[in-house]
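Re: Re: ligand-bound prediction request (bumping)

Still looking for help on this. To restate: I need the protein modeled with flavin-adenine dinucleotide bound, output as structure tokens. Inputs repeated here so nobody has to scroll up.
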Amino acid sequence: GSQAKESNVDVLIIGAGPTGFMLAVWFSRLGINARIIDKSSDKVQAGQADGLHPRMMEIIDSFGFVHRPLTECTIGFEACYYEPDANGQLHKVDRRAEGIPGISRYNGSVIHQGRIEQWFIDAIDGFSKGTMKVERPILPDSLDIDESRIHDQTAYPVTVKVRKLAEQDAHPEQYGHRVQNGLHRQFGGEEDNRTAAADDSAYETIHAKYVLGTDGAHSWVRKQLGIVPVGETTDHVWGVLDIVPITDFPDIRKRCSIHSASEGSMMVIPREGVVVRFYIQLKGDVEYQEQPGTANSSVPAARRIDRSKITADMILERAQRIMAPYTLEPAETLWFTGYQIGQRVAPTFHKHERVFIAGDACHTHSPKAGQGMNVSMMDAHNLAWKIAHVVRGRARPSILSTYESERLQVANDLIAYDTKLSRLFSAPPGTISTDEFRKVIEQGMAFSTGCPIDYDASLLVSKPNRKTSDETFTSSLATRLFVGQRIPDHRMGGQCEGRPWWLHERLPSTGAWRILNFCGDFQSHDTLKQNVRDVGEYFVSADSFVKRYTPKETRFDSVVDNILIHACDNWAVEWNDVPEAWRPKDHRGVVDYWKVFGDMDNLQGNLNPPTNEGRTTGIYDKFGIDKDVGALVVVRPDGHVAKVTRADMEGVKELEGWFGAFMVPAN
Ligand code: FAD
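Reply:
Sorry for the wait, this slipped through. Here it is.
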């Protein structure tokens, strides 16, 4: 036979679920040398997660394919609460806007996971010009880290041996049901004896600089690192059912939370087309079976439910009883699953900052908050650009520690919220007041949008360390902008053309940092006029730190993108009055016109608001920036506010030192 293959790669992603795809979309866009493998021969076809929270919609927009969820998803606008009256009769007690109106341009949107994965596959295909494909069905056999080389950035210290599986062995065995479901055994564990494809070429030894384990709740990578998730298993058993319903329930196309007098609770999630998903508490419907625990499972043996006994009919019957007197019949049953809730978080998300885990590999919890896939993909969104910075030599590896510090906090917050919610949903009927129930859901509403996620002080977030997990920080220069949170979206006026823009439209996920110079109303203040000139001159000078970090062969704005947002009357500002730094030219001398914006309050002309979205205040007001003072706002490549400082040379010098702590000069 021939020799087994051997190769080098900068980044190896193990697991092509939503988390792996989020990493891959970044790496494909940034041109990182990365591969993605999966043991399964197919992507998810039906069921599983289905909710995209508003922040995820913003992120999808930042990668340029938000038109797909906008046209294909069911978008949530209203939510209803049903509770029993004094006679135990179910009735509607509240009807409200879904989510937090105004927190994002996007609403929560739902569609099955397989479709979401397809959008990512298409985007990755586009960005990589067809060169980055999920390699399937490939199973890793071993993972070794050469500790002697972990500090050498030119080395490939992680070795993963993989084998390509024979096609017939690359499907999970589904328990015997006719309907597609999520009740299958895991495969590819330690005792795996599946055959490799016939010849030697099925085996490969991959040497990688970084290995990212996005291989789900039963993560093989996590086990190789010896990381054991911490947490507890509950008795709460949940059924999930995707059907096309026939019903007289009046709010079937709204998100509903139904709390019955004696039959339990459920959630109604209207889905794409006429599909509806039900999340239902199954306590009492399933028996706890004596089952042997497996070596790596933290579910104690005797407390496990026998998932193979769960049927679609069983879940449906429970739903009918909770919903009574309304009727519910399936015209079609698409998918179902059942699971026992375990709330666990891995105590660490990496080994030697060379192998990282993300997504379900780091945290598992109930599906009720609709956060699993979102928080998982957000882990990847946080990690990918940092890895890319280090692999490309733009930043020091020390930035990588912020991945765990930022995402572990989010995972812990998520579990805390989920614990509260799960107890409420699974509490015996009659023991929880309906007020309490609604209060917890409302408190969690903002968190569930993904928008207020707030990273603590670090190398990449300039603010004081916080004392409590919900303590926010704003600079006195931008009193409504939370440092550590994603920068909120807002309207601003394009200077070159008088067109209104959304700020986020100018912040696509390209891996660039942004310095937003809120230079104020410089036409009314000589100091501000001098400041914007000085700052502009600095950025075009040879000494500029932006130039220092930008490789000669790349675009001027590929590492740090300078954007000017003034507060002058846009008709009083002439294009040629704008300092050159914000009218940059490419190698042909063609100007990039989209670096200069004005506050919407001062946007004159035919396109002056009200626009379709109605009239809003200007961006200075929205962010709490004084038009007579201004501010420099640094936005990270993932959209989080990193730092706020003065819009003058003192501020610029401060930024120079700040970037200098982790960035690496280019040429
Ligand atoms: P996953 O989506 O699990 O992806 C992991 C990927 O890694 C898979 O493609 C897998 O084939 C691959 N893989 C695993 N092991 C290896 C290995 N050793 N080598 C190579 N590849 C490997 N969430 C909800 O919100 N609602 C639900 O109803 C719901 N139902 C679910 C039902 C099932 C059966 C499952 C598995 C998950 C469900 N989830 C649900 C959770 C949701 O799907 C996850 O939170 C989300 O997919 C997390 O994404 P991930 O990429 O981290 O992990």
